[in-house]
Prior knowledge:
It comes from Plutella xylostella. Among the domains are: 18-183; 285-472 and 719-807, Rossmann fold (3-Layer(aba) Sandwich), CATH 3.40.50; 560-676, no CATH class. Helix content is 44%, strand content 8%. It contains 26 helices and twelve strands. It is globular, with a radius of gyration of 28 Å.
Amino acid sequence: xxxxxxxxxxxxxxxxxxxxxxxxxxxxxxxxxxxxxxxxxxxxxxxxxxxxxxxxxxxxxxxxxxxxxxxxxxxxxxxxxxxxxxxxxxxxxxxxxxxxxxxxxxxxxxxxxxxxxxxxxxxxxxxxxxxxxxxxxxxxxxxxxxxxxxxxxxxxxxxxxxxxxxxxxxxxxxxxxxxxxxxxxxxxxxxxxxxxxxxxxxxxxxxxxxxxxxxxxxxxxxxxxxxxxxxxxxxxxxxxxxxxxxxxxxxxxxxxxxxxxxxxxxxxxxxxxxxxxxxxxxxxxxxxxxxxxxxxxxxxxxxxxxxxxxxxxxxxxxxxxxxxxxxxxxxxxxxxxxxxxxxxxxxxxxxxxxxxxxxxxxxxxxxxxxxxxxxxxxxxxxxxxxxxxxxxxxxxxxxxxxxxxxxxxxxxxxxxxxxxxxxxxxxxxxxxxxxxxxxxxxxxxxxxxxxxxxxxxxxxxxxxxxxxxxxxxxxxxxxxxxxxxxxxxxxxxxxxxxxxxxxxxxxxxxxxxxxxxxxxxxxxxxxxxxxxxxxxxxxxxxxxxxxxxxxxxxxxxxxxxxxxxxxxxxxxxxxxxxxxxxxxxxxxxxxxxxxxxxxxxxxxxxxxxxxxxxxxxxxxxxxxxxxxxxxxxxxxxxxxxxxxxxxxxxxxxxxxxxxxxxxxxxxxxxxxxxxxxxxxxxxxxxxxxxxxxxxxxxxxxxxxxxxxxxxxxxxxxxxxxxxxxxxxxxxxxxxxxxxxxxxxxxxxxxxxxxxxxxxxxxxxxxxxxxxxxxxxxxxxxxxxxxxxxxxxxxxxxxxxxxxxxxxxxxxxxxxxxxxxxx
Length: 822
């Protein structure tokens, strides 16, 4: 009896301690989550026990409640307790071994740590939710229905993370301690076959962004809603206006949003990824940097004609570098020069002397989208704080220009820069490469090419969240893309496929031949054996017919969406600065006519547009006149290509015919919104290949159990060539020994984190100078949000600091009053 009393007293005392503990809303820190207390128990153990205690308290409260919502709350909290008991031993083991995979004690970070922090963040989220129920359940305005859905979503989230932890335990057996990549040839299909499929829906619904910093959650939620709404316009005959209404549905219905995003990730083509990411260069967004970011004196596009460039080698010999011709033939190449001051050589009125340094930059975008314009938001800030010119390359984009086109263009642009330091306002004494995401991969590959050609190398490389192994090689960080709002699994796979897969022979870009469908491409890939170094990403035969089942995802041309914007900004385009974009869209779509379905009902709207819209925009200049005018423009500020913008029309197409076509598209958009408002539910289900459950199915479902998606392994099986220019991680040790100093910055929640850690470890083992910074709670691509979130801005400042170290410009006075130190 005395033992029972003592045990009961200890339990009550422990419960009181847990109740008094304060746990913040911020996600668990991956750099701290693997530390242990003196007693051997991790400090997060108390957090797990606190969640169990709170859930038990709520379960006891709602157990007598015989209402439907009351019983669902009781079951939801009991389910959470069961999931905690299941997850804790799994995450505890990963927590203990995770430090073995760090680069060093100064820069802790790897995919195992990241998943431990994600699970801890889920527990924090559940604890906050459970305590909200505890404090509000007795109030008059307590919303049982709302909290039922929240608690059940949290339980689904914890269950899915438990499945991920099973996968991590499998990965631990595939590689020796300290190695994040498998030592043997293991496929993702083999990994996912060892456990149940993962419910991806729970990551994009009510719990979206739980693992990120609070300042980023609203941004990520807004982007997800925009993605879902944009897909409505993209796949619904260009009804951009009506998509605003359906976007409200995704705001109010998180479950619908989750199904839509997962549907997009699994079914949308790479063209959708390109179009959505190009929103960063829309008419509105392209003005944001000039309003919110640092003011610069020089911001112009330099067009390099496709002519041979002769540069001296380190041995004193002359080397002639030919312009790239692979895949899309000879094309002009655009470079964007950004400088906070006008320096000698840049402008006839410049008074400042040339800078000693220059930053050679490559932008990110998954190899398929964006440009220097969309990255101008942080490039302006970098130029102001570094006080050196920045030269950014607008390389050609996949899938029209897959590997190695972009790499050859970056190499060619660098050689051109070596001969034109004076025009760029620099002496060229110090050169630093900088790139984020796909751009970081390209500057690493360019450095290897410079070594092979025996040309001058940069003084250092700065790489942000770099994909250095272009493959879905099973690693813990790669699994993070299953829950990433900005880089979902399907997006990442299709981008890598578009870049790593060569263009099929016989269908050069720009031809009028029938395009190879996704199904045909899949069958071609599946017919290739893994041993062949053909660069294809293989798709399993069981999914070969998937592309014909996409419904509305394959019904509408992507060029239709951007026609309104294309003609609105027709007088602002430059043929030279938009060479890459125009070429890639020309290969996808042709300027065909369109027959309206409701011509009579659109007549009034058409007359209005004829009088007040089209006359002022499309009749201002004929296409040939617009091209002549655009060639005389020196700045790119008014020449950025908008989303889905088609190539310039041929002179043989009359203005009248084109105006009628555009007028029809605008009329259809106006009619579409009225149809959407009259039957919004039918619009959502009818326009996007998402099947709503029947009434009987809704009655049987109490959570997302019936929405478990198929395993990602059913979609993609990778087989890419082991080419060091494609994946710099595979470069020969003798070349990596000669690498210039490298500064790598990434985030704990990046699917490419393990690439950065293993590449840094390899460089350090070979004696090269390398450092690694891993930031907390930020997403892949956070630099694009440096003006929206404080932590992202702090991360951008750290980038500036690392580039300064490579430029050796710490002693140079800053040009602004801002403190660039963290």
